[in-house]
Amino acid sequence: MTTRTEFKNPLIRWVDDRLPVFTYLDHEYNQFPMPKNLNYWWNFGALASVVLVLMLVTGILLAMQYTPHVDYAFESVERIMRDVNYGWLLRYLHMNGASMFFIVVFIHLFRGMYYGSYKTPRELLWILGVVIVLLMMATSFMGYVLPWGQMSFWGATVITNLFSAIPWVGDSIVTWLWGGFSVDNPTLNRFYALHFLLPFVIFAVVALHVVAVHITGSNNPKGIDVQVPRDTVPFHPYFTAKDSVGLVAFLLFFAAVVFFDPNLFGEPDNYIKADPLQTPTHIVPEWYFLPFYAILRAVPDNFIGGWVTSWMGFTFISAKLAGVIAMFASIMVLFALPWLDRSNVRSARYRPIHNVLFWFFVFDCFVLGWVGANPAEGMFVWIGRIGTVWYFAHFLVFIPLVSMIETPRPLPASISEPVLKEKA
Amino acid sequence: MADEVQTSDADDGESSRRDFLYLATLGAGAGLGVAFAVPLIDSMNPAADVLALSSIEVDLSPIEEGQAITVKWRGKPVFIRHRTAAEIQTARADDAVDLPDPQADADRVQQPEWLIMVGVCTHLGCIPLGQKTGDPHGEFGGWFCPCHGSHYDTSGRIRKGPAPHNLTVPHYTFLGGGVVRIG
Question: What distances in angstroms separate CA A410 from CA A85, A118, A393, B160, one per listed residue?
């Protein structure tokens, strides 16, 4: 914001003299220098912000038709599907939009992990990103309760019951969360209020995330700093164009799901109205929670912490509490990633061992997701435990260790260098 | 000495008075903030009408021996089972077994033929099966939770699986005339 842009239009100039929003937009989205070697994995941040806006718009329109009461919620959603003009479209966009949001954000997150985008000077940018993921999880969980189907009700029951694992005050906390003695009307009401509020909080944190990336500038596939203006191209038209290509491809995929298989990501049981006296035989969370659900269930009854504390004469850490701690820790560990990875080379392209480990980690996440979708029986118990141990070992053992012993491949002198060599 | 006069507001009464006012204001503000947080947080606890509906009366006379009914209390199912002599005997015999959550059958019932408990699995809140004819009863002839495989015995005690505690026995009173008040 050091130099002001000169605008020809007198009205724009009049506003800009008093509140330099147009200068800001010009600097940050028109002239903004981007590393010129960005690949398509850098599309996903822009895609995520498009989905967020779509969720806000469809969500507000759905809120105008929805009734947050246990006697009417299910029926009001069916009314949206059958009677409201384009209600089916609004709901299917919103419902699948949540899945799309997580697909895009998970890819964005893996991109950051692969290319070391969390490293100096982008630690705070990364932390804000993890905060966004946490807020998204809370928001989508509460949103899933609103249709008041069987999975809504029992998912809410299982997840809120997790807090009862907290020693001494657990039961009081659960009663407070419910506003009663079970998941009921007060619970539905507060989840609706929070589901309305949190997306705007997400929007605010996204704004901070974007401001932060405009301070440090984008990372790039080589993971080396921009040195000279020749290493960059302006955001417009180069990345507005590239983002548009990715956006069209993404919207094709999104539309294919919404129009051809809108219940692909859903559970048929959620089209049965919630019944507090009848548990579905197999409670599963939405797909984006499956790896975390697998970690929750991975802790055995006789695990070491419980064994030690019960040997000391009391059971402070039950298997249930340990599972809950493990599940929350699986996200919290992401906050520490910038400090766990001690290598000063960002991109995994130049880190042979780290590169292999990364793909093992991606594979592990898929395995945990598969385990989470299945009943905790037989081989799934063991696969889930091994997958969970690998998950934490990846962050707490492999990454720190490899970052200290690995010899990285030589880095190019600049972003432009390899390109110029090819030309010559 | 002249220097000390010039820098006096750093260490004499004037500055400590200012510090005190500053800390007192901050403390009062923080205290009021906490005090105001109490009603805000407490507003999310169960309201008076929710609490008012927290007890029910159930007529037990139509329930034959070996039958069970489920009633809704505080939004949760309550299992009421008219136990057979055989079930009572098994439950008492199992008092001596190594139980995950040790409790004698006599401590779980007021009248041995009436087993009354909250039908919510103590693991993650599912409803165990075993109330209806044809339901599985688990390995110990009581209830079985299909969610994560917890087995409860004829006294509703946890015997196998991830649940940490026995099925909860609510507070209840026999009012006479075959009527019980739960809550």
Answer: 60, 21, 28, 58
Domain spans of chain B?
A: 1-45, 51-182
Given a contact cutoff of 8 angstroms between Cβ atoms, the answer to whether A399 and A357 are in contact is yes
Q: Whole-angstrom Cα distance, residue A290 to residue B151?
A: 25
Q: Of A260, A279, A298, which residue constitutes the final position of a domain?
A: A279
Residue B126, chain A, CB below 8 Å: the answer is yes
Question: Is A157 within 8 Å of chain B by CB?
Answer: yes
Rounded to whole angstroms, the Cα distance separating A46 from A107 reads 12
Asked if B123's CB is within 8 angstroms of A162's CB, the reply is: no
ipTM above 0.85, yes or no: no
Closest in A176, A177, A180 to B75, CB measured: A180
Q: Choose the mutation target among B38, B78, B147 for the interface with A, i.e. most A CBs under 10 Å.
A: B147
Domain identity same for A249 and A290: no
Domain boundary (A251, A279, A307) is at A279
How far apart are the C-alpha atoms of A294 and A365, rounded to whole Å? 10
Kindly determine whether residue B77 and residue A183, on different chains, have CB atoms separated by under 8 Å.
no
Residues A247 and A294 in one domain: no
Is residue B127 less than 8 Å (CB to CB) from chain A?
Answer: yes
The answer to whether A179 touches A186, Cβ cutoff 8 Å, is: yes
- Residues A235, A267: one domain? yes
pLDDT digit string (tens) for chain A, length 424 residues: 458 888 999 999 999 999 999 999 999 999 999 999 999 999 999 999 999 999 999 999 999 999 999 999 999 999 999 999 999 999 999 999 999 999 999 999 999 999 999 999 999 999 999 999 999 999 999 999 999 999 999 999 989 988 888 888 988 999 999 999 899 999 999 999 999 999 999 999 999 999 999 999 999 999 999 999 999 999 999 999 999 999 999 999 999 999 999 999 999 999 999 999 888 878 889 999 999 999 988 887 666 655 555 555 555 567 778 888 999 999 999 999 999 999 999 999 999 999 999 999 999 999 999 999 998 788 999 999 999 999 999 999 999 999 999 999 999 999 988 767 766 5
A281 touches chain B (CB under 8 A): yes
Cβ-contact A109, A136 below 8 angstroms:
no
Q: Domain range spanning residue A356? A: 284-424
Which residues of A are less than 8 Å from B125 in CB distance?
157-158, 161
Task: Give yes or no: residues A138 and A273 share one domain.
Answer: yes
Question: In this complex, which of B41, B54, B75 lies closest to A184 when CB atoms are compared?
Answer: B75
Say whether the peptide bond before residue B102 is cis (omega within 30 degrees of 0).
no
Which is the catalytic residue, given A267, A269, A286, A341?
A286
Q: What is the pTM of this model?
A: 0.88
Give the active site residue among B148, B151, B165, B171: B148
The secondary structure of B76-141 as a DSSP string is EEEEEEE--HHHHHHHHHGGGS--SS---GGGT-SSTTEEEEE-S-TTTSPPPB-SSTT---TTTE
Q: Is A279 left (phi over 0), alpha (psi -120 to 50) or beta?
A: beta
In a domain, A4, yes or no: no
Say which CATH number the domain at A92 has: 1.20.810.10
Contact (CB<8Å) A182/B75: yes
**CATH match of B51-182 with 2.120.10.30:** no
Contact B76 A181 (CB under 8 A): yes
One domain, residues A187 and A254: yes
Domain check: are A399 and A304 in the same one? yes
Domain count, chain A: 2
Residue A14 in any domain: the answer is no
